[in-house]
Give the backbone structure.
Amino acid sequence: MADQSFDLIIVGSGPGGYVAAIRAAQLKMSVAIIERESLGGICLNWGCIPTKALLRSAEINHLLHTLDAYGFAADNVRFDFAKVVKRSRGVAAQLSGGVKHLLKKNKVTVIEGEGKLAGTGKVAVTKDGKTTTYGAKNIILATGARARVIPGIEPDGKLIWSYREALVAPAMPKSLIVIGSGAIGSEFASFFLNMGAKVTLIEAMDRILPVEDKDISAFVHKSFEKQGMTVLADAKVQGVRKNGDSVTAVVEVKGKVSEITADRLISAVGIVGNVEGIGLEGTKIKVERTHVVTDAMGFTGEPGVYAIGDLTAPPWLAHKASHEGIMVVEHIAGLHPHEMDVGNIPGCTYCRPQVASVGLTEAKAKEKGHEIKVGKFSFIGNGKAIAMGEPEGFIKTVFDAKTGELLGAHMVGPEVTEMIQGYTIARTLETTEAELINTVFPHPTVSESMHEAVLDAYGRMIHL
Ligand SMILES: Cc1cc2nc3c(=O)[nH]c(=O)nc-3n(C[C@H](O)[C@H](O)[C@H](O)COP(=O)(O)OP(=O)(O)OC[C@H]3O[C@@H](n4cnc5c(N)ncnc54)[C@H](O)[C@@H]3O)c2cc1C
């Protein structure tokens, strides 16, 4: 028999789980959330937030080394790496505390421990060897994911790091190898480079940031190299050798094998879903490539059991997890929410230069059979970007030539992660070029470039 029953039990308190819990409480459900580690999940404790805190320090370090351009001079600029890491951990702790407060305010019951399905409508929670069973009309699995480990490149906490070890690095490495140039790998490579490390970024695909538009990948590649990073695309790591206090990667690039040695190595080769130990055995729940399969409303096929966030299909992003959490809860409450349109989920990478995109790349749009119009505007034609001293980068828009639908937008440069939402709203509203052209953008802002990139697709660009 269950010790206590709820309308909804959520296993995992990341941005998927805790947001779902708050929405359910708003809809007057009795809700319990089970967490085995820290409230806020990977995002707040080991992902989105602490990395952005580190990247802010790297941005300041970069600015401090380019002061002359702004009319300043400073001697003996230095940093205390332990303080940089401590600040990042403090920011993570503050936000995790914030989630605790929000859950309390919404009267969500927080249960500490390891949760697993324990038969229809039941969740067993184990803590310190003691198991308690709770009843629930509905259950949402939101157990997230962890770093993918390649055999032979297992994180050891000393020489080889996953994102977890990298976030609490005990000292600044003088040199670093980063394997994998997705958002996580590129952000760490950029952080350590801007803090002064010699960085080699290795990517197995033919270009870095491989999910982005080709032009964006090429621009970031060049920019990283200009900043002093060694970037190897189309590069296969054949093996990794640990030395006393360094690590050597054996890398094959276009048939040529070479060795790269650095103080430390970060493996950032993707994630695997946390599907183990959550009671999936004997249920109707299907797992494909370590992620739980659901229908459009997050239903797993097992009566009363839903799944959201990184545990399920990509994109593996915090805002996707939160949006799904709300959608599933509203579906459970019978509110008929809209299905999530994966094509309208923006993706951001906070390296220097920043990258942001939504919708189809030029290549994907063509592949899908669209006749397209493409616009491009470089920040060198934007007054605010020049005034800020950050005129590198561009915006690219992709339109359907027949209907004028904005199919995709791709940005690289200053504060683009803050601006992509403009195009995301446009896509959600199914805007065409006509409304975008007719929109007035404030001057002087970097966002004016968003207008110009639309104008260019229709041969009407003004400032270049
Ligand atoms: C270094 C890094 C940087 C990132 N940066 C960004 C970014 O800038 N923007 C972005 O959108 N995304 C980013 N992400 C991805 C983002 O963190 C994830 O998409 C997001 O956290 C997924 O949320 P979730 O709720 O599905 O799962 P998670 O955040 O992974 O939360 C799952 C929670 O479930 C708990 N749990 C697991 N199993 C159990 C169990 N059996 N019982 C109880 N609790 C359990 C875990 O302890 C965890 O707290 C980043 C990820 C990393 C690693």
